[in-house]
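Protocol step 4 of 6: structure prediction from sequence.
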Amino acid sequence: MPSHDDLIDDAPEQAAPTPAKRTRASASAPARTSSRDGRVLGQPGFVLHSYPYKETSLIIDMFTRDHGRVGVVAKGAKRPFSKLRGVLQTFQPLSVSWSGKSELRTLIDAEWVGGMLPLERTALLCGFYLNELLVKLLARDDRHPALFDHYVSTLNQLAHGEPAQIVLRKFERALLKETGVAADLSRCTTTRSRVESGGDYVVDPERGAREAGAGEVWPVVLGKTLLDMEREDYTDPATQAQSKQLMRFLLAHHLGGQPLNTRQILIDLMQL
């Protein structure tokens, strides 16, 4: 496996140059791309995860609107007087610019855009859960603008105290839809007929809903739960409880056995 040094552009360990002064990009402003060197300017994005690289730099997983999940190297970001030091924080809307065409690009600039409340307490932990899902389920450089907007909306809902169980279920479902692995829950795959509210069903992670049989090892849920999930209606407490178990099962399948660290903490704290 190539090292990180093999995956980034050959450049000295120093702070990245700052581009010419420009108007601060809004969260909806389109990014500008130069095909010559793969340079992208003013892309709306969020930090998903970061870890140290060499003595003064960071490797960062970014979630961006038009380029999806992108890996960048922030050179010199750990230096005491780096302008990036206080900017590259999770759950803060950024306007980011980078260059390079390798697996790990070089961060040129990052500016705080603002306009969002910070996450606190349990909402903060829920935010880390969202980030862990994105890191583990999204392929690099696979654009998902609709999911990006859903992520922004979800952070805002959590920050404003919306019920975490409902907010998380909607995001989990949107994530599976965007990655192409969520089946239509309103149709039975074996009969192609509409799911009946009073019936018992299981959801095959690869095919979709079917009628439950005797001795099922997969979570058995009411048809009403599936129909509620399809229309994003989680007001029924039974739907909340059954959808939690179902989404936990589906995510575990699509994660291929990878553990979700933040999910376990949430389960321990709030039974989410």
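Step 5 (inspection) to follow. Residues 34 and 85 are 26 Å apart (CA to CA).
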